[in-house]
Write a structure and sequence with these properties.
Blueprint lengths: L21 E2 L3 E5 L2 H12 L17 H13 L3 E8 L7 E9 L4 E9 L7 H17 L4 E7 L3 H9 L3 E12 L2 E11 L3 H12 L22
Parallel strand pairs: 5-6
Antiparallel strand pairs: 1-2, 2-3, 3-4, 4-5, 6-8, 7-8
Helix pairs in contact: 1-2, 3-5
């Protein structure tokens, strides 16, 4: 077990995330832009309204509606959004954000995650989550990285566990979303845990772990000696 930090007498607040590009082998994350990304995102989710089921917004019937919503995300200060652009296509296929940012305590959440069907269950999706976590821990120095989701969203809970987040419990009647109650499942990853998570991510993402058709040879869980 990693040793938890108890003496923080010399702790200093960490920076807020700023717009930047994070580049991997399978995916590039760039600041979300309504102008640049709306058309590709609408195409990626056309006829796939289920991607919005557990998000606070959407679905959107037209590009103008989606563009307006993306513009609010682009310019808002409560969250820092990235467009997720798989290397295979060069077109935005989803987005994610840093949110509930608390630099004084070194706590931040990854949320507002929208993966189109083309992005779901791909190396690009996993690498995007790796790049965001690495930036938070290694570049900005945060202590705690959170993942929260509707407790009814079982795929999101499975994703959190797969990515190395630790389950911490359910906040009952936490929110009202789209006119429905939301119990929220809480997960988190700590800075002391990151080195082991990083090793697992990088071993899974390595070229040697994929065949010539791009299929994984070993699952991410097989590299997680901390599980």
């Amino acid at each position: 077990m990693p040793e938890l930090q108890t003496n923080l007498a010399h702790w200093q607040p960490v920076p807020l995330p700023v717009p930047l590009t994070l580049t991997g082998r399978f995916v590039t994350l760039e600041p979300l832009s309504a102008t640049r990304h709306a058309a590709a995102l609408l195409q990626a989710v056309h006829g796939q309204d289920q991607v919005w089921d557990f998000l606070a917004d959407g679905p959107y019937a037209s590009q103008s509606e989606l563009t307006e919503a993306l513009a609010l995300k682009e310019t808002g200060t409560a969250a820092r959004f990235f467009a997720l652009i798989p290397a295979k296509t060069g077109q935005a296929a989803g987005y994610a954000s840093y949110m509930r940012m608390d630099p004084a305590n070194g706590v931040i959440e990854v949320g507002n995650v929208m993966f189109s069907p083309a992005l779901q269950r791909t190396p690009a999706a996993t690498e995007a989550m790796y790049l965001m976590a690495r930036h938070i821990f290694e570049d900005l120095g945060y202590r705690r990285y959170e993942w929260k989701c509707n407790a009814a969203n079982l795929p999101s809970q499975r994703a959190a566990r797969r990515l190395g987040f630790t389950y911490e419990g359910i906040f009952r009647q936490h929110m009202i979303v789209k006119g429905k109650n939301r119990d929220t499942a809480w997960y988190a990853m700590l800075d002391s845990e990151w080195p082991a998570r990083k090793r697992a991510f990088e071993a899974w993402l390595a070229k040697e772990n994929f065949d010539t058709q791009g299929r994984q040879l070993r699952a991410l869980a097989e590299f997680q000696d901390f599980a």
